Amino acid sequence: MIKPKALKLGDTIGIIAPASPTTEERVKKAHDKLIEMGFEVKIGKSPYEKYGYLSGTDAVRAEDINEMFKDKEVNGIICIRGGYGTPRILDLLDYEAIKNNPKVFVGYSDITALHIAFTQITDLVTYHGPMVASDMIGDFSEFSRGNLFKAIMQTEPMGKISNPPEEEIVTINGGIAEGNIIGGNLSLIVDTIGTPYEIDVKDKILFIEEIGEEPYNIDRMLNQLRLSGKLHDASGIILGDFNNCVSEKHDENLTLEQVIDDYIKPIGKPTIYNLQAGHCEPMVTLPFGVKARLDADKKELIILENCTE
User: Fold this and answer.
1) Per-residue pLDDT tens for 66-95?
2) Which residues contact 32 (CB under 8 A, 6 or more apart)?
3) Set 20, 144, 209, 213: catalytic member
4) Which are the contacts of 46, defined by CB distance < 8 A and separation ≥ 6?
5) Residue 209 annotated among the catalytic residues of the structure
6) CA distance 135 to 164
7) CB of 180 within 8 A of CB of 205?
8) Among residues 295, 222, 294, which one has the least CA distance to residue 265?
9) Catalytic residue chosen out of the listed positions 55, 109, 187, 235
10) Does the annotation mark 235 as catalytic?
11) Which of 61, 146, 245, 252 has a CA that sits 20 to 30 A from residue 153's CA?
12) Please, are residues 11 and 40 in contact by the beta-carbon 8 Å criterion?
């Protein structure tokens, strides 16, 4: 895997919007927040654009990504928010330029599509972590900031990934698994299946998180992962935060925990649940593409190798 250079204070971070739009006010707050955190900032075109429910046309959003990677003044890239639309631009990206200009790349949610594509096509290590407008300009805790900085600003292995003190990790299936971490938002993972960007989880640790989906939708998507062999192919599974995944429409229902048990327990792969990565605050930052060990018996995830140079 190709590891980007670790960021340091004073480096320039590029802000892009690969998915849904935001407001100019929030773009300014995003800019000011990164300045406050000690970085220089370069904002692409897409955060100022709007094309219906997208932050500019596909061409604009794809060009922003390509140009930010090519720009020698930009040391790292953080997405301003998620939303919808990232998979639309996967076939417009210059993967050769991205591979030849490795940089810290941070985001989550709809940005999952880029994590999967970058990891599999360019061998670039990327970071499932907080976005500027979605997380940093709001209630951004010291826990979340410290986790992000540990991932993108140090060259030593991150070691043990710990939850916030008030959040307990739960063991679904015991055992130990090793492999590179890959994954992200469940809806986006499922969207890759049957495309040239289909997620490859063979001998990898599969990470899954979700927000705002009723249990029957989680059921449908986990079933697709089961039928496509993805759950069986993974060496282990990390279930992150499942924010507001409860039923509000149906009287007859299964709980989220019942759905997870139905699909994950029979697989028998080492699995933990409630790692605080995803649509949550505080938030853990996870590096994708580096070797990790999942000890489900001890409820531990340990990053074994450095994720920056």
Assistant:
1) 999 999 999 999 999 999 999 999 999 999
2) none
3) 209
4) 16, 17, 18, 55, 56, 60, 61, 64
5) yes
6) 16
7) yes
8) 222
9) 109
10) no
11) 61
12) yes
